[in-house]
Amino acid sequence: MKTRIALIPAYQPTSALSELAERLSGSGFEVVIVDDGSGREYHACFDMAKPFATVLSYSENLGKGDALKYGLRYLRAFYDADCVIVTLDCDGQHTVEDAVRVADAAAEKPDSLTLGVRRFGKGTPLRSRMGNASACAAYKALAGVWVSDTQTGLRAFGGGLLPLMLSIGGSRYEYEMNVLMECARRRIPIGEVPIATIYLNGNKSSHFHTVRDTARVLGNLFKFAGSSLTGFAIDYSLYGLLVSLLPAAGLSAAAAVPLSNVAARVVSASANFAINRRLVFKSDASALRTGAQYFGLAVCILAGNTVLLNWMVNTLGADRYLAKLVTELTFFTISWIAQRFWIFGGADKNEKAENGAAQTARRAPRLASRTEAAAFPAVREG
Known about the structure:
The chain is an alpha/beta fold. It has helices at residues 16-26, 43-49, 64-78, 96-108, 126-143, 162-167, 174-185, 210-217, 219-248, 253-280, 287-315, 320-343, 346-362, and strands at 3-10, 29-36, 53-58, 83-87, 113-117, 155-158, 190-194. Helix content is 57%, strand content 11%. α1 links the parallel β1 and β2 (29-36). The longest helix has 30 residues, at 219-248.
């Protein structure tokens, strides 16, 4: 039987954490808990769990994503790849029985990501329903894959996926959405196991804040939309100006539409690239490389955009301003996918995420529990 590891990121937990660790240990799991900078007043909670778990700790609160990756780096250092890893929340919303069921499913398909999915019925707090509904809809639209619970913290996968999980960016709740996006991009199967839906005291113990953290989870999309809106404003304004002036200057209406579209797109694309590189995707990759890729994409989109626009106006007889709106919405989606997963993603971004996980480990001074954990700061960084 494969080694089963329960990884629990914990921030300011209650005494229920030690009970969870004890029950998991009794069910055959090796338990690893990461204290995500909870503070000295919570040391007692973690001390109670030490007889049943390895407790890793650092002083600064870095977020759930960083805590998970810190624990995953520990697992990569001390466990063979032939293991099953189950992540759980520390707030009592996941039962040990469900953890076992999710682990069983992952053991059968270790190269897949298995989700323990909740059912959102009448008893579900409104903020949980809202957050999950918006995240699921966005994920379906962007990834083309439907999952019924994007925010579940009960997940399982084989140890062979550890390098991938460590390469994915995100330090807080957005990390879990990024994992789903990356799995979809790499066509890694995502399975679901129904689990109990448990909310204690109306889910007040959760550190997920509906508005702030949903915005963080979907933040990349929001920023991209804002950047695209800026580019569109430049593009549409210049297009409208030129498509009105060029016929007045003697150019035929049929020629004015594609020429205006090309000129407007060149200007707006330059502005859009600068905004996306620095503010949206925050890429440290070579400006020359990303610039070449971006403008290669821009040329392809411009060609498709111009053909579609010209066909709608000059063949179908559509209003030239309405046709422009339709083409921009179509190529907005294509552009986001290409930039997110090709131009500003890829090796450079993965390397940055891995280095970030290494830096997290270096600034985590207080390690506790089993003696081998004391060697963790010296573990290879690669």
